[in-house]
Task: inverse folding
């Protein structure tokens, strides 16, 4: 049963990621991206990581993707540059990076045994555990991250402000 | 194993049928309420008290000619319908309708899935519904529809933040994100959380109206300026589906969540026999739904620029203050 769910979600995830890369219309691409985010949330759910699944839905599927959607849908598509065949030069420049990342992923797969299907975690109080760990063991990195985000927010407001 | 699957499917079927049927009949309720508020009769011709009016409307909508606007993005045009309806239905999956009971030695919970993060699911689904609106407006290739959908996106983005912080107060007191646990903790303490969190309830009402696109926050509809907003290019039953999802399913779902959070869920005096908890739950939910309809037909509409101003400059600071004060009180007195 869990195997069927896992296979279904993984196939859905991989297909939507591939779709997001190969479709030409940007709005279709963002829809495929949204679908991949939903599939990821499903994978987290099926593995028992409920809190991360919920946060994945709220933060990625809504808060982040909605701004992509807002920007992409408001661009006047008549005026932009049209697709002109395969970008050969860009592909050749990108090729070394693709090879390196494939090698790294292959090394990781070799080092850790991730060939077996991830096991479902039998933890019921996800929220409590994450909260406790975050505010005790990882308190300092957590606070640093929040200060960085605060600075970024103030910076964004300052940049977006109209000059008086 | 197989029995569990059958029980789960049965629960889903009941909630789906009841939800969709309710959606149809709430149109009748809304028209009656609107009529009486405006000193009219409301529907009264088809059947006794106009009770068959929703069926007549449904037949009319289903038999209309199906039109797709020129230049529309057809797959996205249809996908938008699904994206609008499914999240509103999924909200019902975490609503507990009553306490668990036992049949033939098998414990049955009247909730489709009692996950530990029930409230997160509600927020997520409430916000995912925004994609139905945005893509409906974009795919119809129409200026009115597109302006309406962008307005809705702005409203959802602002009010979702306020909603999250407003509900945090209740979560802090109850100590859980699960809807069943929140109701149980209210029954144990013998008090409804609206007594502890009146500010949060008022904020929640604002967000509920904004998320379901009800007056005074219905700028995405705005008949006077935008014809009828994001769904103007849809015809027939496809046109009827957006109000069904947004105005009826969302309002009922969010009202039920409000009852869970602030009005003690299914708790109430045992005066209707074994069905008492369910009846109490429905009575409380529909009292809130009626309140929403009442506001809808009484108030005028805000301006588009005021709505986001209210959310970010007034409601969000109040919500943050509420969370901080609640956290201090909970820490000191428990």
Result:
């Amino acid at each position: 049963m869990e195997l069927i769910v896992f296979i279904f979600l993984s196939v859905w995830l991989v297909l939507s990621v591939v779709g997001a890369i190969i479709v030409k219309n940007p709005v279709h691409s963002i829809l495929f991206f949204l679908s991949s985010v939903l599939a990821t949330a499903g994978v987290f759910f099926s593995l028992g990581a409920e809190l991360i699944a919920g946060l994945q839905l709220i933060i990625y599927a809504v808060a982040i993707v909605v701004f992509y959607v807002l920007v992409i849908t408001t661009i006047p598509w008549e005026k932009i540059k049209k697709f002109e065949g395969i970008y050969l030069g860009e592909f050749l420049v990108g090729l070394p990076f693709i090879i390196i990342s494939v090698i790294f992923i292959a090394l990781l797969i070799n080092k850790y045994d991730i060939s077996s299907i991830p096991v479902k975690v039998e933890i019921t109080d996800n929220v409590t555990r994450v909260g406790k760990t975050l505010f005790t063991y990882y308190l300092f990195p957590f606070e640093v991250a929040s200060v960085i985000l605060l600075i970024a927010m103030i910076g964004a407001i300052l940049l977006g402000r109209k000059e008086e | 194993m197989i029995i569990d699957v059958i029980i789960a499917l049965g629960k889903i079927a009941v909630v789906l049928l009841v939800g969709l049927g309710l959606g149809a009949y709430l149109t009748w309720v809304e028209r009656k309420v609107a009529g009486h508020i405006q000193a009219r009769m409301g529907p009264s011709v088809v059947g006794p008290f106009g009770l068959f009016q929703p069926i007549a409307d449904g037949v009319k909508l289903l038999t209309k000619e199906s039109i797709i606007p020129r230049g529309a993005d057809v797959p996205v045009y249809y996908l938008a319908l699904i994206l609008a309806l499914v999240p509103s239905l999924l909200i019902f999956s975490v609503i507990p309708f009553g306490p668990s009971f036992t049949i033939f030695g098998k414990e049955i919970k009247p909730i489709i899935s009692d996950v530990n993060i029930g409230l997160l699911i509600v927020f997520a689904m409430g916000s995912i519904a925004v994609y139905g609106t945005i893509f409906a407006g974009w795919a119809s290739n129409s200026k009115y529809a597109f302006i309406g959908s962008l307005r809705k996106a702005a409203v959802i983005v602002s009010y979702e933040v306020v909603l999250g912080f407003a509900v945090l107060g209740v979560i802090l007191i109850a100590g859980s994100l699960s809807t069943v646990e929140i109701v149980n903790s209210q029954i144990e303490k013998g008090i409804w959380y609206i007594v502890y969190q009146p500010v949060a309830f008022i904020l929640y009402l604002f967000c509920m109206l904004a998320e379901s696109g009800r007056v005074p926050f219905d700028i995405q509809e705005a008949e006077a300026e935008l014809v009828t907003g994001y769904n103007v290019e849809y015809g027939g039953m496809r046109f009827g589906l957006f109000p069904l999802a947004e105005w009826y399913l969302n309002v009922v779902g969010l009202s039920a969540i409000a009852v869970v959070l602030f009005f003690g869920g299914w708790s109430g005096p045992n005066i209707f026999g074994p069905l008492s908890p369910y009846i109490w739950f429905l009575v409380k939910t529909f009292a809130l739904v009626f309140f929403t309809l009442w506001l809808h037909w009484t108030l005028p509409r805000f301006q588009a620029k005021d709505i986001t101003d209210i959310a970010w400059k007034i409601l969000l600071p109040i919500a943050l203050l509420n969370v901080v004060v609640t956290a201090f009180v909970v820490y000191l007195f428990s």
Observations:
- The helical segments of chain A are 2-22, 26-46, 50-74, 88-111, 126-135, 139-160.
- Chain A has two domains: 2-122, 125-164.
- The longest helix of chain A spans residues 50-74.
